[in-house]
Amino acid sequence: MKEYSENIHKTVDRIIARRGTSVTAVIPILQDIQQEFNHLPKEALDYTCQVTEISPARIEGVASFYSQFRRHKTGEHIISVCAGTACHVKGSGLVYDAIRREMKLDPNENTDADGIFTIEKVACLGCCTLAPVVRIDTVTYGHVMPENAGEILSDFLKRRKQPVKAGSNAAPSSAVKGEIRIGLGSCCIASGSQEVKTELEKTVAEAGIRVDVKQVGCVGICNQVPILEIVKPGENTAFYARIKPEEVKQVVLSHFRPEGSYRRFKSRVVGMFENMMADEEPRSVQKYMFEQRDSPLSAFLGPQVNIATENRGIVRPCDISEYRNAGGFEALKKCLETMSPQDVIDEIKASGLRGRGGAGFPTGRKWQLVHDQVSDEKYIICNGDEGDPGAFMDRMLLESYPYRIIEGMIIAAYATGSHNGLFYIRAEYPLAVQRISEAIQVCRDEGILGDSGPLAMDHRSQIPIRKSPISNHQPPIPDHRISFDIRIFEGAGAFVCGEETALIASIEGNRGIPRLRPPYPAIQGIYGKPTLINNTETFSLVSWIIRKGSAEFARIGTEGSKGTKVFALAGKVKRGGLIEVPMGISIKKIVEEIGGGIADDRQFKAVQIGGPSGGCIPAALADLPIDFEALTEAGGMMGSGGLVVLDDADCMVDIAHYFLSFTQNQSCGQCTFCRIGTRRMLELLEKIRSGEGVAEDLEKLQHLAKSTHTGSLCGLGKTAPNPVLSTLRYFRHEYEAHLKGCCPAGKCTPLISYSITEECIGCTKCAQRCPSDAIAFKPYEVHSIDREKCIKCDICRQVCPVEAVKVGSIER
Amino acid sequence: MRIRIDHKEVEAKEGMTIMQAAALLGISIPALCYHEGITHHASCMVCMVKDLDSGRMLPSCEYPALDGMNIQTHSHEIHEIRREALELLLSDHVGDCEAPCRRSCPAFMDIPEMNRLIAAGRFEEALKVVREEIALPLILGYICPAPCEKACHRASIDGALSICLLKRSTADEGARLFAGIPPIAGNGSDTIAADPGFPHNTGTLNTSGKKVAIIGTGPSGLSAAFYTLRSGHQAVLFDQHKEAGGMLRYHITEEKLPRKALEAEIRVISQMGAEFRLNTLITREFFDNVLLREYHAVIIASGREEQQITDDFGLELDEHGLKVSRTTLEAHHHRGIFACGNIIRKRQMAVRSVAQGKAAALSADHYLKTGKPGPAHQMFNSSFGRLLETEFGEYLKESPAAARLEPAKGFTGGFTEAEAIKEAARCMNCDCRKPVTCKLRIYADEYQAHQKRFAGNERKLISKSLQHEFVVYEAEKCIKCGICVEITKSEHELQGLTYIGRGFDVRINVPLGGSMEGALVRTGKKVIEACPTGALACKINHNEKRRDS
Lengths: 812, 549
Known about the structure:
Low-confidence stretches of chain B: 182-204, 545-549
Number of strands of chain B: 14
Number of domains of chain A: 6
Number of helices of chain B: 23
Oligomer: heterodimer
Helix content of chain B: 25-40%
Distance between the termini of chain A: 60 Å
Strand content of chain A: 5-15%
Helix content of chain A: 25-40%
Structural class of chain A: alpha/beta
CATH class of the largest domain in chain A: Alpha Beta
CATH architecture of the largest domain in chain A: 3-Layer(aba) Sandwich
């Protein structure tokens, strides 16, 4: 016991030596403690209070507020079942149940008897196009079906025994004949791109091909990942979608002449393009030529406009010279050389740029406010606390374009006269944190940030002093004295911290409780100083606007909404992914052209836009343009950019319930209406969903929704009722059907029942997989389901080869 | 800067909140989470006002007064949003304002308070508490079916408190019987009980100069007489029988109700100054010419069988009996005529008749003073329903583990003093310690909030923390305003209190599993006073100025 305490004390001492003893260090300290001990031992918390300025009240308040922190030891491995929107509509709830069954858990337990696995639901893993997604530690499984629950657990345990070795980057650098690009965004990695890359490097090394294997950021075509792009001078760029490691060799050799022993093999296929498609390439792989008309790829990419995602899939995320070569830092240079801070602000104002975090406040006006404050300190914060289930734009931008965001922040710092920058990034986005910190370090090394940064300001005039002209051949930011540096703050798992005042509270080492505005952060933000908080996407648009001019940006979009918007397109479309579209594009165009329409020949019913703050817009209004005001008017919201497509198999009551359960769970608990009102609304939805609702409940629901909107202080509470209000507005008939005991979409389990039709061929698959022995094993006979035993896990329907399992309304 | 509030202009200082600016105009705005002098963050939303320019509702306790603002603090819409905030808070407020025994008592007798006084051996004070609501404690101590005992939270644990007998024990020592006859309205502080020479002269008691005729001397009539006298009016009781008591005398056997007890309590009322006119049958003529002319008010408490007054006197009937207003007990379309007891509803429990007698007397009193009958105001009561088995332990923390005590002398014999003290100590004190000062209750009452309107699926489990020397913490009564957290922080308590968790499940407690004793070293008194509900209360002084209010 003594040894245990000593160990804890030593560890805490070490952490504190690194993090400091101030109250603002509380979250990083807790994160480090948890990193060390897998949870927060009480002993460690007590000791931390003894040796720091952090009080017991604060440490308890903070540790219990953020969902990242655990107070009890977990199993050796954490199974995170994504509960994001896309995963939800694709059945993650059933997957969660199935894994729990596999783990043989009692209802109140989350860790298996042997202490190997702990299961938890997580808000969103940001791999929406691979839905449903399950992550075990660092291994991500996409498209998981309930019936595969057992397989992924055993697969994971198998992997654990034979760790996959990361391949060495052996690609020769001289005399490169071309590039092979592989996306290494989180989605890509989740879909196995790391293994593909390893195989790729092995093949290249073994064959001695002089080709640059390049890992690029997110390519956006998340529905096709892992994707391999082969760029060869004189040839059309070729994409290979959904490639598997074992197929890599064949694909590579079909494009590049081996230098060594593979030469003979290669010569057989070279130049026989059509043949390759048919014979040489693995069947599972889909290959598209970029220029090929009507290919799904060009349909997907065609209507898009890349500003935030400029040079998508081409540049190495952390390679600063590539960023420079593609026009990076030109905007900053332009600002420093030719524009005063006010010029910059005027340019942003003229562009019509509005915040991309959801509410759409004019960015230029925000900058102006901060600029106009007289203060010894000002702060720039990049809000990367993307927490919407079903949105991963920020993650992708942070992972793929770190320099672009940093440049946007530096320009903002220049315009507003700020010296301190901060990235607030969700802890659930480790790759984003890693890439940003790498990029920050590179910027410091290059003299773009930190002690030798570009913005040597005269604090009084806030006009930069330039020592020497900037030339193209030097690093764009020459030897100036300091001014702006950026650090990273990792969020600890609280959706509400996306709200700017809660975000500030969290940085200051408090519970993430939003506070009343005014005062606005632009006037009194972090530590009471003027603070500019912009969303990640907003910052990523800045350099383009400065470089190309505000007029160019304002040319795109509608009257009130200019430029582009990045969306995470997911749900029931054929092609999901990360898209950047011009404002003003219709929902229909996004769904039908970019998304390729609804998958599996089902009916397009609605899009859920704006995540938990947004609403459902019915298919009948699909001509609606993407525009802040138009979406709000229709009961949706631009939100941060989740766009989940729903089909006729989706129940709108279930969707409303899903979103409300998210916000209810994420409420900070301050305002009465949000803390209790959302809970009561959720209970009403549960009642309706299980067929026990009465007409009066709809009125009560609507009533509570309105007063929760009126009576909540922050955006979370104010918008939490939107999914309920919009579904009540457009799909009231579905609510009414539930009152009569019928779920038209066949989704709400208390209202449905499973049966097997005469088409059953007696293959016994369902009987073998049924987890509750509700189907008797009768080879070659028509099977039947014992409804008493049936737990409605949907596995039988999924495994039936002849679609003989039907879902119907329960008889009442 | 100037701002408009309810169409009135006021000059507000920089940094003032809307609420503070409104106070300058004498406009008070309700608030639960606001506490002068500590860092404040709006949370309860009971203080909402409307910004007429933007149409937005703003929490006035924190929102700054801004130049040129146009604020409205009263409207149906504002009333509704405040009421809803209260109703949502109440839906998550697990606690009883008044104990279930008291709520189920038709006469609303303060049973826990009586029990506490008995347990402390203070029988006379206990009788005073009883007499606040019940005029005939001794009689009811024999014949009351005791609905309170069925509602007692302890009934499901190890037997309900023996409330009926305890009530009898407050009144059954002869000398004690006069105790608790409260001060005469408007007549200074002297109580009859304090005066050994009990005044027989009615004249001294009749301070108002008003005369009330009471027809019938059964439980409702006697009760009406008691409270009429207590209100300072003259009470004249009429009965056709030769002895007073009505059904108590003629329908209940001596075995059930010793005549001694009946006589004793009639004597109390008589000695308070009531005039009994027995052997008097009320004719229509007498009613019209004497009662209606010579008396300022008439209370009909004649029961069912004595006479059919209603037919004769032209009063309206409904399916239950004589038709009265349910709130004021005033006869339909007859100002100044009240009715109570079995004549308005047949075969009631005696205790209900006693309760109605009181209500009719108080309504008549209101009428005599204002010209309008006074509806008995039933204060808002929070209640959580059944105590769950898992909560028994929490509730037993304040009382000894002992099964219901049966009196050695049997029911008729009643408790000895020692037995009564022992049994009364079993009371679990289910009533709130802050029934008077709880702001949640006050506003719930003012805004006519319904606790069940937004009732949740399941309620939180009750806990009582009694570990601190004098602070009781009942977390499920907490509305999460955080005033106590801020106080402990600003007063530099080493541990203090903190928010734990978030959202719906957030609760306030001592950090890192510490004790209340350690958390509230110097702020115990302050947090009790500042807590807007009964969540943090004083352990020792359970009865919070109840009778003085």
